[in-house]
Amino acid sequence: MALTDALPIETEVAKLIVQTLNLKIDPAQIQPEQPLFGEGLGLDSIDALELSLAISQSYGYQIRSDDPEIVATFASLRSLCKSIEKNRTK
Asked: CB count, 10 Å around CB of 21?
């Protein structure tokens, strides 16, 4: 599934990820189901912190490090977007 088939929020969050983390890729290269960490996009815990702050500022959604769902939330672009849509205040 190409990002052109992605939901509008997935396109928006992909751009946020690339801008926030200064990634040298086109946001359209981030597949909705691609893992964000490890073998996928290769993000690490520092990236997760920076991304959490950007999501909080952009969407008003506070991702807490002690949230039992945090691993599932950050599993992929799609899962992150679902959490943002469910919890956003902006």
From this structure: 18
Spatial CA neighbour of 44 closest among 72, 74, 81: 74
The DSSP string of 3-15 is GGGS-HHHHHHHH
- The ranges assigned to domains in the chain are 3-87
17-46 tens-digit pLDDT: 999 999 999 999 999 999 999 888 999 999
Report pTM.
Answer: 0.90
Phi-psi region of 37 (alpha: psi -120 to 50; beta: other; left: phi over 0): beta
Topology at the third CATH level for domain 3-87: 1.10.1200
35 beta partners: 76
